[in-house]
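User: ok so my PI wants both of these folded by tonight, can you help

Assistant: No problem, let's get them done. Here's the first:
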Amino acid sequence: MTAGAEELAAGALDWMIESVPAGDHSLYSGGAGAVLALLEGHRHFGDNRYGDAALRGAAALAEVDDCSLYFGLTGTAVAQRAVHRLLGDSSAGRAADRALRLVRSRFDGERWGPMFELLFGNAGIALGALHAGDPELAVLAAAPYLDTADPTPGGVNWAVRPSPPRSHHIAHGTLGIVYALAAVGAAAGRGDFLEVALAGAADVVSRDEAGPDGFLVPHSDPPHRPELIERYSYGWCNGPAGDAQVFRLLAAVTGDSAWTALGDRCWHTVTHSGLPHRVRPGFWDNSGRCCGTAGVLALACDRHLERGIPLDFAQVLVDDLRARATVDASGARWSNHEHRAALSALPPEPGWAMGNAGIARELLRFARLTQGTDPAYAVPWPDHPPSS
């Protein structure tokens, strides 16, 4: 069982090394995300080939205009800091420091751009700065949420984009901000951050449509781009697989078992949704970490460690990743699907969100769990609570 997951992950890393787009330095789809996956490969296999590739990848990361965690300088700083910490490369550490200084210099007093959430905005910058060793920048990025929270019948939420819809989940919505406020608040001893985080979480919980056993909240209200975006999804980005990660953090920070129970309800909904089968066009067309199978696998492994849940469903997910992989002499990779396109098979991607980097990372962790070796990631992700 584990040999299959390891072999698939090794093939994914091998293909990824040769396929990272030269002009994409992002954590989401480019070089920074690949560096973190290579560090996982280096730690798991003890293969210097992956460590050397991570060093080269970190050195190639360039300064960009964007400051965000997933698409800009904060993400490159996270990757560079990891290379410094794990491989002892001081030049990578200095590059991380420079990137964070640039991020700080571009702050306008409230935000870095029109988006005000985790992938593009303040919440992600706060988490990345905390992760990369700059807690002062983390507080600077998180503090504006205190004054911009809007009261709702259930709690509070935020205007995360220039258009009216309010999104609810971790990638672009309320729960991503909740995660940042709770994490930074706990690290900095800021009770006011945690208080507003809990109010934001309460708003999302009040929107649940699947209780009492499950948990399912719509993407956004009013619906954002409903002609393109489904009202309900199940992955990390806009569904219960990601909601559960926020509830895991709140349980750890508050000690309140109600958050653990909400995580259990998320898991019930995920495992009863029909995934990983494509039950209709557009349902479960992605194998990646952001909105696909690898993100659910991450939660399955967390729940095994923390709740004693058997790895049976995790094995189903791994088997599905194996079945959907293209494997040949150049390695392994995955083609996701675009159900709105006539030619629906999309080219394979190397990055974290939709491609090899995010998938390989979870396959390696699954392999260690089934082997009984250290299940911890080599590099914890800024918005993924470490398992206890």
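One down. Here's the second:
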Amino acid sequence: LVCDKKTISCTACLVQLFVEHLFGGAEVFLLVVMAYDRYVAICKALHYLTIMNQQICVSLLVVAWAGAFVHALVQILSVYELPFGGSNVIDHFGCDMYPLLAPACTDTYFIGLTVVANNGTMCMVVFVLLLLSYGIILSSLKTHSQEGRRKALSTCSSHIMVVVLFFVPCIFIYVRPVPNFPIDKSISVFYTAITPMLNPLIYTLRNSEIKNSMENIWCKMLNIDR
């Protein structure tokens, strides 16, 4: 898109497909981990440091990336042996499963079902589980102080916003049969561009240490004493 190049090799297209689903799968698993982290922090605050120790955090991170790798590998294996011929135009701005199935010179109905099972079902199940988990977390706030409820609501609301922005477009794209709709390209922008751009704003800039550091840097640039 930056170089205004309209062509891509088959190998590069498969690499792009793998990388897209690797990071997308990692996002899914990390959102689950973050929901668990918020549950422990809010519902079991006194045991948080014991439960979420460094070993557990590293293990959860490894599991998230391992799951994402397997998910992305399944995508590559699904389309690697497909015979392509005739039209070589992909009606999309990136290489994804459904756009790649369109120019294939074979029946791709079964592969389309595997996409629904692998991508669509995973997105739907995880989305429902995340909403239920945040519902449990928010319902537990009744026993917290007003300040505690405010902080928990502030954190959970940002997480829920990311979950909705990421999963709703994914569910729309992947939980239906193979045929593509013209709106698919616009919808896919949400989970490929908009949500990743919002992540630093939602997570990093909400961190008190980061905000204090940025304020200090800003004050030094303007020569303002705090």
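The chain is about 75% helix and 0% strand. Helices lie at 10-43, 48-51, 54-79, 97-101, 109-139, 146-174, 184-204, 208-222. Good luck tonight!
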